[in-house]
Structures are given as structure tokens and as C-alpha cells.
Write a structure and sequence with these properties.
Blueprint (H helix, E strand, L loop, with lengths): L5 E5 L4 H12 L3 E5 L8 H10 L4 E3 L6 H10 L4 E4 L6 H6 L1 H21 L4 E7 L22 H19 L4 E7 L1 E3 L18 H10 L5 E4 L11 E2 L1 E3 H17 L2 E7 L5 E2 H12 L5 E4 L8 E2 L4 H7 L7 H14 L3
Parallel strand pairs: 1-2, 1-4, 2-3, 4-5, 5-6, 6-11, 7-10, 8-13, 9-14
Antiparallel strand pairs: 9-12
Bound molecules: nicotinamide-adenine-dinucleotide and uridine-5'-diphosphate (UDP).
Length: 337
């Protein structure tokens, strides 16, 4: 890197953004975070500083607010943007669709408007494997058909479309769409990690709650899927691998114009019971579970073909399932919630 580039992280105080902030700072970037702490807390900024020795610049703003975002761009020379800000609870998005469309889409639209005003042309977008809808076959490659089963998913797919159209209209724009599979784990320090509000929806945080004694058992949603043991199969990826994929994407955005899309997954599918067993073994803790009916909207199997990211970004996941389980538990033990 010739000069220190400055990267704006929208949603940078969140689970994924905080890990990316650490990696960017460690790699010599300047980091500016824009977050309204809707699903995070200012303490995360202290933690990022504790890990890296550098305090990122923070703007406590709503990314949908045009004037506040313009002020941020006036006060900082932003070179590129990683756009993570968004609401992400699938169930809530079904209950409150307008809240999701309004927040997630307006954040993207506003950001693109202000980026254009200030001549900022590089953006990496947090998309999701959810845009593949109900997969016809696995592993999933980036050119497979997209569709969604809930409003959250649609905000991701619509976000991809908005960015794609913006790149068509502005040939200087470089857009990287990253479709995440299932991020788990935490920073090795145990200082940052995922902090779900209330009862966790996702598997790994729920298992950690059971391990901590906050819940007495895990409900395994369905044991009659056409999978090796009847339980759902997903592509779990360590947050540190997911984060390093963003740094590679940022480097790639320097030279490319137009839109590129990449899966960020390991390429390996694990069942719910694989995860329970791996967690028990890695941490030497018993996780009691019971089978319950399938959760509505769940697919049997979802895992990535990660070859494109390897070939083009020179990126692949390197952290094992054992580390995912150990690091999730290490973080859970260190948090008070
Ligand atoms: P998170 O909730 O921990 O982080 C999102 C951050 O964005 C939070 O700190 C929240 O306060 C902030 N935010 C939300 N709306 C905002 C707004 N209008 N203005 C400013 N800040 C706002 O979630 P995460 O897991 O870190 O996810 C980051 C991104 O990745 C999200 O866009 C999410 O949809 C996407 N994603 C996450 C997963 C996952 O499993 N965690 C999977 C695929 C995609
Ligand atoms: N799951 C489960 N019990 C839970 C939470 C999740 O059995 O309490 C299962 C779920 O049915 C799916 C897998 O674990 O097969 C991963 O679920 P998660 O919500 O973490 O990710 P997603 O389904 O969104 O990919």
C-alpha cells in the first residue's frame, strides 16, 4: 500500500464489522466507522482499540441520514467503503418488513448518493447466501439462480441489484458483492464477538447459551431432512476467515471496474449434529438436545463452492471447525450477557 488508505465501515461496530476493523487497522489502513448502535454498543470501539492499539474514528450516525453521512465524507477523505450496516433478523423482517426495506435499502441508496458526490468509487457489500433461496443443488456457485424467502433476504438481493445498476450507470464504480455463508467464532482475544439480543436464533450462539447454563437444552429443528443424519446442513465459516476475505476484496476493487460477486464459505457442509459433536469435543462440555419439528423456511442443505474466491481473490478459509467452536465458547465465557 503506497499511502495509508482510509476505509469507511458502515455497521463497523457490529459482529462482522468489528473483526474487519481489527484486520484493517492491523494491515495499516485508517478506519472510519459509521454506526448508530442499533445492534451494537460503543464499548466495541474500546475493544477494537484494546486489540490493535489504534482507536478507529467513530461517527455515531444513521447511514440513512443524508446530512450526517455527507458531514462524515466532508471531514474524512474516504478511499473505499465496506457496507455492512443493516438489520439482519430474518424472523423480525417477516413481522416488520417495512422497517427492513426502509433501513437496509435507504442505507445503500444514501451511501451511493454521497459516494458519488465525493467521487468515491469502491464499495464492498455484505450480501448473504440467503439470496440463493431454496437451492436446487449444492454446492452453490455464484451464477446459480437467486430468489428469496423473506424480506431480509429481499433487502440483500435488492441491494445487489441497486449496486449493479449503479455500476452500469457509472463506469468508474467498482462493486464487490460478498455472499456470506454462516459466520461463527470470534476474535482470539475473546474481546469481540457476536452478541445476539435476547434468545439467539442462530445455532452457534444458542449452543453457547446452553453451554453457559442459560438454557437447558438445544432444540434441533428437524431430523427428517434428506441429509446424512437428517439434520440441516450449513457452511459455517470462522469470522476471521470472513474478515480476511474483505481485505482481499478491497485489494481486488483497486483494479477492477464493474461488479464482481463472490461466495465466502468453506465449501464444507456440516449438519446440526456435527456442530453439537464438534462443540462437545472441542470444549469438553455436554450439550443436551431434543429433536423438534422443522423451522419454517429452513432449507435442508446450503453450502458454497468457494473456488471463484480462491481463483480470483486468492482467498480461502483456513480455520477449522474445532477453532470455530473453541473461539465461540472463549468469547461467550468472557461476556456477561
Ligand atoms: P450486526 O447487527 O452485528 O452488525 C450490523 C451493524 O449495523 C450494527 O452495529 C448496527 O448497529 C448497524 N446498523 C444497522 N442499521 C444501521 C443504520 N441505518 N445506520 C448505521 N448503523 C446501522 O450484524 P453482522 O452479523 O455484523 O452483519 C453485518 C452485515 O452482514 C449485515 O448487513 C448482515 O445483513 C450481513 N450478513 C450477516 C450474516 C450473519 O450471519 N451474521 C450473514 C450474511 C450477511
Ligand atoms: N438450528 C437448530 N436449532 C437452533 C438454531 C438453528 O436446529 O436453535 C439449525 C437450523 O435449522 C439450521 C442450522 O441449525 O439447519 C443453522 O441455523 P442458523 O439459524 O444458525 O443459520 P441459517 O439457517 O440462517 O443458515
Amino acid at each position: 500500500m503506497p499511502e495509508k488508505e482510509t476505509v469507511l465501515l458502515t455497521g463497523g461496530a457490529g459482529y462482522i464489522g468489528s473483526h474487519i476493523a481489527v484486520d484493517l487497522i492491523d494491515s495499516g489502513y485508517n478506519v472510519v466507522i459509521a454506526d448508530n448502535f442499533d445492534n451494537s454498543s460503543p464499548e466495541v470501539i474500546d475493544r477494537i482499540e484494546e486489540i490493535t492499539g489504534v482507536r478507529p474514528i467513530l461517527y455515531e450516525i444513521d447511514v440513512t441520514n443524508e446530512e450526517d453521512l455527507r458531514q462524515l465524507f466532508k471531514e474524512n477523505q474516504i478511499d473505499s467503503v465496506i457496507h455492512l450496516a443493516g438489520l439482519k433478523a430474518v424472523g423480525e423482517s417477516v413481522e416488520l418488513p417495512l422497517k427492513y426495506y426502509s433501513n437496509n435499502l435507504n442505507a445503500t441508496l444514501n451511501l451511493l448518493k454521497i459516494m458519488e458526490e465525493f467521487g468515491v468509487n469502491k464499495i464492498v457489500f455484505s450480501s448473504s447466501a440467503t439470496v440463493y433461496g431454496v437451492p436446487e443443488t449444492v454446492p452453490l456457485t455464484e451464477d446459480m439462480p437467486t430468489s428469496c424467502t423473506n424480506p431480509y433476504g429481499w433487502t440483500k438481493l435488492m441491494g445487489e441489484q441497486i449496486l449493479t445498476d449503479a455500476a452500469k450507470a457509472n463506469e468508474d464504480l467498482s462493486v464487490i458483492l460478498l455472499r456470506y455463508f454462516n459466520p461463527v467464532g470470534a476474535h482470539k482475544s475473546g474481546l469481540i464477538g457476536e452478541k445476539p439480543n435476547g434468545i439467539p436464533n442462530n445455532l452457534m450462539p444458542y449452543i453457547c447459551d446452553v453451554a453457559k447454563g442459560k438454557r437447558d437444552h438445544l432444540s434441533v429443528f428437524g431430523n427428517d431432512y434428506p441429509t446424512k443424519d437428517g439434520t440441516g446442513v450449513r457452511d459455517y465459516i470462522h469470522i476471521l476467515d470472513l474478515s480476511s476475505g474483505h481485505l482481499k476484496a478491497l485489494e481486488y476493487a483497486q483494479d477492477q471496474k464493474g461488479v464482481s460477486v463472490f461466495n465466502l464459505g468453506t465449501g464444507t457442509g456440516y449438519s446440526v449434529l456435527d456442530i453439537v459433536n464438534a462443540f462437545e469435543k472441542a470444549n469438553n462440555i455436554k450439550i443436551p438436545y431434543e429433536f423438534t419439528p422443522r423451522r419454517e423456511g429452513d432449507v435442508a442443505e446450503c453450502y458454497a463452492d468457494p473456488k471463484k474466491a480462491l481463483e480470483i481473490l486468492d482467498w480461502q478459509a483456513v480455520h477449522s471447525l474445532e477453532e470455530m467452536c473453541q473461539d465461540s465458547w472463549n468469547w461467550t465465557q468472557k461476556t456477561n450477557s
